[in-house]
Write a structure and sequence with these properties.
Helix content is 0%, strand content 34%. With 210 residues, it is mainly β. Strands 1, 2, 4, 9, 10, 11, 12, 14 and 17 form a 9-stranded mixed β-sheet that branches. A hairpin with a 2-residue loop joins strand 15 and strand 16 (175-176).
């Protein structure tokens, strides 16, 4: 959709008006456990923000938001619900502009977790493995259309929104968050603690997950 990228493509201003196609990462995840953080920084109070993952092909004319399709899962700001397959499921707290959403994707066990300002929602425990305490259960990556999941942001019903993503570079946009939390490989500068066993989604870590 009509989006503007900056800061090494970690900041995206989505200006699609009635076109709500998600903006997805260029790096897909096929296995392992991954962590990243997203901060919405503009929009109508952040009410219609969606943050999550996708394995759905979209185009510049797609007018469905993240979570509309069977292989999308999104944490929805307005209600705190998880949106998937065009339906909402009760999950966690609402969030708004300047809240920081942590995403922990466990492809090994087909589980997904979200935190809000360092608090894992739905009493989630990303290190619980196959038990999936408080997790969102997702389709195995190998069974999705792309065979991989991509990070995604989207919105609905607003003229424009901006998302700033920290993949471990230590910044939201051009502002350092001032923390030094790293993954198990010692990679990354995150605002909040990275769960044990999870890795920053960056090229340095590619190939280290199986």
């Amino acid at each position: 959709n009509a989006s503007t990228f900056s800061n090494g493509n970690t900041t995206v201003a989505q200006n699609g008006s009635s076109n709500y196609a998600p903006v997805l990462s260029t790096v897909g995840m096929t296995s392992g456990k991954w962590y990243w953080e997203v901060k919405p920084t503009s929009g109508s109070g952040g009410a219609y923000h969606f943050i999550g993952i996708s394995s759905t092909q979209t185009t510049d004319t797609t007018d469905q938001e993240l979570g509309h399709f069977p292989n999308d899962w999104a944490y929805y700001a307005l209600s705190g619900d998880i949106r998937n397959n065009n339906a909402n499921t009760s999950y966690g707290d609402t969030y708004t502009v300047d809240d920081i959403i942590g995403v922990a994707l466990d492809i090994t066990n087909n589980k997904l977790y979200f935190s809000k300002n360092g608090v894992w929602q739905n009493s989630g425990v990303p290190t619980s493995g196959a038990t999936g305490t408080g997790a969102v259960s997702i389709t195995a990556a190998a069974s999705t259309p792309w065979g991989a999941y991509f990070t995604g942001t989207s919105y609905y019903g607003e003229a424009s929104v901006t998302f700033e993503t920290n993949f471990g570079n230590g910044y939201f946009g051009t502002t350092s968050h001032g923390e030094t939390n790293a993954d198990d490989a010692g990679i990354g500068l995150f605002k909040y603690d990275v769960p044990a066993g999870y890795y920053a989604l960056c090229t340095t870590n590619l190939g280290d997950q199986s």
